[in-house]
């Protein structure tokens, strides 16, 4: 593709004998918000530090606009970072903080003044230019860090867990503001986060990492609808997963043998990442899942075209716009369903041992390998 | 924290011993030499306080003034050397791995726990004209000579006519060496604790914004460690100024400092009033330095908006 | 296909402890600090009577024997230990009281009190030495050594307590600052009296601070030369004062041997302290 800005090619990073990143290749497009998502310790921060230049890869290379920048030190890369702790210099006021990077570039004083003023305007801090960092709130300090990085007009802006240090309410507002800011300046953002909701809300594309391997790169909608495997599906939202014991080929597709649901006929090709074993004795590494928002509950036996399972109604947790009902299956497991509040209100409490059916359409189910081979 | 009201008996029981002790054995003794400094010898051990200023006037005599100036100069040079050596050493400890850090700290602290007199005495063996330092220098000289011969450059005679051992004992250089030797751990610790508290991402942010190593050190690392550096400078300078043993043993009476003159007045010349006056001058100098330090702190916290 | 090997062992930009230039400064600095002590210990085994510090004449341990047979040196050593033990006990008690007062109470003139306690730490020791010497002389408490042991050492002990208890107070106060006042409130809530709270809650919490303060006071006392030099009499000398007069007289391997004994004692003391701290934390 012509508008690739950062190209990560076959990057492996070892710390001693530990492999923090294993052969990662990603192309990041000009002007997009790209999220690196994964649980803590998955290697996403290491990858960000490699792009910024604070770590050097054990193997592989990094291209910026098609040119190798692997050996460039951080101060020579046209890439800037908003640190997780913001790293606002405590001994300089807001203005000096923002001007610092331009002074290092030896930009003329007059131009520095103008550009700093514009940058502060962009992050709504014009009235705070003479303040010291310890006179600012956490959110304001983050804006200083943002302005300080953006004023350098970087090719790429890196944001390390940009919202994790803010309180819940501010976080939502800032999420929106970051997206707006990105739209107005047009700089490519690479965001590291462990919060899937944050990544889904902000990013154009998301790379899901797990223990140093890349599991999937896709848009939020794609990731949600077609996760590569059970790990990604579970990490992006919640799922109710059922282990597939056996798969056998039938005329119209495959038959899935599942302890809890019986035999389910799957009328299409299973994903290529699932191997259908030759013998029925072999273990199948696949799950059939349904998201809680697709599960309905009823006190009567549901229609035949629905996949259903019988159980006892457990706790109902009120969530605001909706409620989450727990269904206790007879084998001791529980699955969850998102139900409307008015339905939740007429249902009796958990101690009433009400027998119910959880049911959903087969079209809402995901047939996934337990673990897809890393990209 | 609580007010003493209602707990008066507990408060007095706890605070009185210290107060009485310090008054009796610290304030009163200082008061005595303060009175003596305005006194005159009546007999050899009897001093009458006549409120004369002669003792202070004598400090202004060129000989004493020069000696005070030299003390300040020696203490200053030693402090500067300590800071230049101590800062990188503190930096190494502060950024060492979690495992190595306590051992490196111990390495620096152990000499500090060793007796000051013994450490100063140990330097006699190092600094003599036939001492170990000159052995090392001679060895280096001979290697350099061989190297010169190897390159066939003897005729240029770059190294002079042979090795002349350094004379350190009895010279200011030797005294400075000694002061640096006994003070270095004191310099390292405050700088270390300032660097230890520093957030590494501040340094990374600086570099990310385009600053090189040296620019980052100058703009971020050193300014943020400044309070530790100032503490280190004061904590090194004050004892250095009052050094007695180093000039006494390593200076061999050639490089006396203030404390040596004071000692002479009390132990040999028996001129207690004059000795008291110099002691108090040294004390006042200490107070001025401490006051400067708190002014610095106040100005700094005001500048940073932390009132 | 992108398998370009790159070394990941290169030091990061701010891993100062991995930079060879800084490492060599550290190494040279450490050699600078240790070489004199090592040379002193090595030369304590030098078989040379005169100018024992210049030339190596072979290995011997006879100067240790000589040091141990030197009655004056051993007396001075005994004095030093006696002074250190007594002044440590008093310093810890005074230091603990001071620390509790400064930590616990708010009272008028507190900054003054605090400053007064900190003063002995900061003023030049020669000033303290001469002022105490003048004080003892004015009081007529001269260290003649006529009184019975350990009262002949009273002056030196007083001097040592005066300069070491503020250090002990500082260490103990630091420890107290980590005390969670809710523990005290919890104890009171469970029915403990003020005194029981002190004995059962506060004192156990202070213990590591008390031990650290004691070790510091002990080392400071053993270490002191200048103040002792002014407050000791002709017959009440301490180990450092004795060594000083020996050094002034002539440099012999015997001094090296005696010094080595003291260095090893300090080493053992330090390691005991470290071991204790480790067990405690």
Describe the structure.
The complex is a heterotrimer of chains A (375), B (307) and C (281). Chain A is α+β, with helices and mostly antiparallel strands and 375 residues long. Chain A is built from nine helices and 21 strands. In chain A, helix 2 packs across helix 3 (109-122), helix 2 (94-104) runs parallel beside helix 4 and helix 3 packs across helix 4. The longest helix of chain A has 18 residues, at 168-185. Chain B has helices spanning 8-36, 54-59, 62-94, 101-113, 116-127, 132-150, 172-196, 200-208, 213-241, 245-249, 258-267, 272-303, and strands spanning 2-3, 39-41, 47-49. The longest helix of chain B is centred in the N-terminal third of the chain and has 33 residues, at 62-94. The model of chain C is unreliable at 1-8 (pLDDT under 50). At the B-C interface, strand 1, helix 1, helix 3, helix 4 and helix 5 of B face helix 1, helix 3, strand 1, helix 4 and helix 5 of C. Strand 1 (2-3) of chain B pairs parallel with strand 1 of chain C, so a sheet runs across the interface.
Helix content of chain A: 10-25%
Average pLDDT number of chain C: 84
* CATH topological fold name of the domain at 292-361 in chain A: OB fold (Dihydrolipoamide Acetyltransferase, E2P)
Which CATH architecture of the domain at 292-361 in chain A is right? Beta Barrel
Basic shape of chain A: globular
Structural class of chain C: mainly alpha
Overall outline of chain C: globular
Oligomer: heterotrimer
Q: Strand content of the residues of chain C, in percent? A: under 5%
Segments of chain C where pLDDT lies below 50 for 5+ residues?
1-8
């Amino acid at each position: 593709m012509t508008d690739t800005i950062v190209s990560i090619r076959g990057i492996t990073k070892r710390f001693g004998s530990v492999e923090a990143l294993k052969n990662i290749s990603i192309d990041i497009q000009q002007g997009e918000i790209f999220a690196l998502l994964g649980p803590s310790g998955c290697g996403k921060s290491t990858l960000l530090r490699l792009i910024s230049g604070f770590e050097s890869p054990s193997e592989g290379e990094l291209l910026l606009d098609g040119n190798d920048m692997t050996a460039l030190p951080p101060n020579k890369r046209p890439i800037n970072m908003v640190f997780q702790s913001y790293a606002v210099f405590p001994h300089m006021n807001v203005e000096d903080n923002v001007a610092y990077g331009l002074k290092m570039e030896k930009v003329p004083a007059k131009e520095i003044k103008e550009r700093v003023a514009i940058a502060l305007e962009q992050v709504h801090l014009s009235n705070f230019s003479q303040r010291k960092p310890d006179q600012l709130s956490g959110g304001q300090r983050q804006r200083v860090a943002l302005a300080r990085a953006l004023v350098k007009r970087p090719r790429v802006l890196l944001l390390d867990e940009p919202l994790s240090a803010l309180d819940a309410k501010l976080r939502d507002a800032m999420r929106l503001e970051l997206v707006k800011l990105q739209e107005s300046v047009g700089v490519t953002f690479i965001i590291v986060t462990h919060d899937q909701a944050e990544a889904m809300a902000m990013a154009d594309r998301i790379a899901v990492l797990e223990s140093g391997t890349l599991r999937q790169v896709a848009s939020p909608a794609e990731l949600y609808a077609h996760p590569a495997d059970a790990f990604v599906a579970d990490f992006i939202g919640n799922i109710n997963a059922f282990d597939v014991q056996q798969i056998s080929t039938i005329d119209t597709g495959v038959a899935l043998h599942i302890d809890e649901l019986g035999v389910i006929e799957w009328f299409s090709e299973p994903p290529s990442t699932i191997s259908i074993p030759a013998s029925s004795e072999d273990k199948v590494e696949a799950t059939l899942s349904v998201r809680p928002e697709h599960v309905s509950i009823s006190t009567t036996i549901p229609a035949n075209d629905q996949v259903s399972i019988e159980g006892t109604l457990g706790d109902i947790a009120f969530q605001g716009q909706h409620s989450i009902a727990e269904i206790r299956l007879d084998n001791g497991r529980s699955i969850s369903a998102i139900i409307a509040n008015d339905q939740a209100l007429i249902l009796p409490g958990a101690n009433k041992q009400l027998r119910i059916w959880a049911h959903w359409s087969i079209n809402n189910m995901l047939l996934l390998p337990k673990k897809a081979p890393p990209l | 924290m609580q007010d003493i009201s209602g707990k008066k008996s507990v408060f007095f029981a706890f605070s009185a011993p210290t107060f009485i002790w310090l008054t009796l054995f610290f304030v009163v003794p200082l008061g005595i030499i303060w009175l003596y400094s305005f006194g005159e010898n009546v007999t050899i051990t009897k001093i009458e306080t006549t409120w004369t200023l002669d003792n202070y006037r004598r400090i202004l005599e060129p000989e004493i003034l020069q000696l005070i100036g030299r003390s300040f100069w020696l203490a200053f040079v030693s402090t500067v050397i300590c800071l230049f050596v101590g800062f990188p050493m503190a930096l190494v400890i502060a950024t060492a791995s979690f495992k190595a850090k306590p051992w490196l700290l111990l390495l620096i602290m152990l000499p500090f726990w060793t007796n000051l007199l013994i450490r100063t005495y140990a330097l006699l063996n190092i600094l003599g004209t036939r001492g170990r330092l000159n052995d090392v220098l001679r060895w280096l000289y001979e290697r350099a000579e061989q190297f010169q011969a190897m390159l066939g450059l003897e005729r240029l005679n770059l190294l002079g006519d042979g090795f002349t051992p350094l004379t350190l004992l009895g010279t200011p250089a030797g005294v400075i060496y000694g002061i640096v030797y006994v003070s270095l751990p004191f310099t390292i610790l405050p700088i270390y604790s300032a660097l230890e508290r520093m957030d590494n991402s501040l340094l990374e942010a600086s570099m990310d914004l385009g600053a090189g190593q040296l620019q980052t050190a100058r703009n971020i690392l050193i300014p943020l460690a400044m309070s530790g550096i100032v503490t280190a400078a004061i904590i090194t300078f004050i004892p250095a100024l009052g050094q007695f043993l180093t000039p006494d043993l390593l200076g061999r009476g050639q490089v006396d400092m203030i404390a040596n003159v004071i000692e002479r007045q009390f132990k040999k010349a028996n001129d207690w009033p004059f000795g008291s006056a110099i002691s108090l001058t040294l004390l006042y100098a200490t107070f001025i330095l401490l006051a400067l330090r708190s002014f610095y702190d106040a100005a700094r916290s005001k500048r940073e908006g932390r009132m | 296909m992108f398998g370009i090997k790159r070394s990941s062992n290169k030091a990061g930009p701010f891993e100062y402890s991995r930079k060879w230039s800084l490492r060599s400064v550290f190494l040279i600095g450490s050699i600078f600090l240790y070489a004199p002590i090592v040379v002193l210990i090595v030369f304590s085994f030098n078989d040379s009577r005169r100018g024992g510090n210049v030339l190596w004449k072979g290995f011997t341990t006879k100067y240790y024997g000589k040091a141990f047979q030197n009655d004056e040196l051993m007396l001075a050593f005994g004095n030093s230990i006696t002074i250190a033990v007594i002044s440590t006990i008093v310093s810890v008690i005074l230091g603990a009281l001071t620390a509790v007062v400064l930590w616990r109470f708010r009272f008028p003139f507190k900054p003054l009190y605090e400053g007064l306690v900190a003063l002995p730490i900061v003023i030049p020791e020669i000033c303290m030495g001469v002022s105490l010497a003048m004080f003892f002389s004015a009081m007529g408490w001269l260290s003649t050594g006529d009184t019975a042991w350990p009262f002949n050492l009273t002056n030196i002990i007083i001097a040592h307590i005066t300069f070491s208890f503020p250090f002990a107070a500082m260490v103990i106060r630091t420890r107290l600052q980590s005390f969670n006042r809710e523990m005290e409130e919890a104890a009171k809530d469970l029915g403990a009296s003020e005194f029981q709270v002190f004995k059962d809650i506060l004192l156990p919490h202070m213990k590591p601070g008390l031990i650290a303060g004691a070790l510091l006071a002990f080392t400071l006392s053993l270490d002191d030369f200048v103040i002792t030099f002014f407050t000791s009499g002709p017959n009440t000398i301490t180990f450092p004062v004795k060594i000083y007069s020996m050094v002034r007289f002539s440099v012999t391997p015997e001094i090296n041997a005696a010094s080595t004994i003291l260095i090893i004692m300090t080493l053992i003391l330090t390691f005991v302290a470290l071991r204790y701290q480790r067990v405690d934390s």
